[in-house]
Amino acid sequence: MPKILITTGDAAEDLEVMYPYQRLLEEGYEVDIAAPTVKQLQFVVHDFVSTFDTYTEKPGHCWPADVALADVNPADYAAVLIPGGRAPEYLRLDPHFQRIVKHFFAENKPVAHICHAVVALAPLGVLKGRRTAAWPACAPDVRLAGGTFVDAEAVVDGNLVSARAWNDHPAWMRAFVELLREQAPVKR
């Protein structure tokens, strides 16, 4: 059965980890969660309060990482998925994260990202000439990286499938699973 890698860490958006994780398992894929270290991760929930100018952050679920980023052989995986939240802010500095992501783009394997995950991709040069969705506040990051920001619920550009935030999950995962079924089908 093909394996899918989710690269994340503490303060990742809870729904953006757990929904794809469960959806990919349901589809029949083996899913590994990779983080800087193997430990119990603490996710967060971003939500909206009518009196705030921005979103709020509350503690979310805890979930164990399966593998450290340093120990990941990206050739073992058919695709990678990068959730948003605050984890991408520090993942982008991790040389193992960088190595992993660059592998998937170089090999033209499926890559899914959502929300603030784009801040981890922008410095890697992988968005140049690409169309991508992200949380709208990240549009400048996309443009500075040479990409085109698209404000839509699911944007597919070759092997790249992106979305704005967790409320786009149905369309985003539908598009990603369709790409996986073409490029890395589960044998039934």
Concise structural overview:
This protein has 188 residues and is α/β, with parallel strands linked by helices. 30% of the residues lie in helices and 26% in strands. The chain is built from 6 helices and 11 strands.
Description:
- The protein is of the alpha/beta class and 188 residues long.
- It has a single domain, classed as 3-Layer(aba) Sandwich (Rossmann fold).
- Helix content is 30%, strand content 26%.
- It has 6 helices and 11 strands.
- The strands form 3 sheets. It has a 7-stranded mixed sheet, sandwiched between helices. The chain has a two-stranded antiparallel sheet with strand order 3-4.
- The model has no long low-confidence stretch (mean pLDDT 96).
- InterPro entries: C56_PfpI-like, Class_I_gatase-like, DJ-1/PfpI.
- One of its GO terms (molecular function) is hydrolase activity, acting on glycosyl bonds.
Question: What features would you highlight for this structure?
Answer:
single chain; 188 residues; alpha/beta; Rossmann fold; seven-stranded mixed beta sheet; two-stranded antiparallel sheet; 6 helices; 30% helix; hydrolase activity, acting on glycosyl bonds; peptidase activity; C56_PfpI-like; DJ-1/PfpI; glycosidase
Report the structural category: alpha/beta
Number of strand elements: 11
- What gap, in angstroms, lies between the N and C termini? 9 Å
CATH architecture designation: 3-Layer(aba) Sandwich
The helix/strand series, from N terminus to C terminus, equals EHEEEEEHHEHEHEEEH
The named CATH superfamily: Class I glutamine amidotransferase (GATase) domain
Strand order of the largest sheet: 5-2-1-6-7-11-10
CATH uppermost class? Alpha Beta
Helix content bin? 25-40%
Question: Count of DSSP helices?
Answer: 6
How many domains make up the 3D coordinates?
1
Q: Sum up the overall morphology in one term.
A: globular
| Largest sheet descriptor | 7 strands, mixed
What is the alpha-carbon Rg in Å? 15 Å
Mean pLDDT: 96
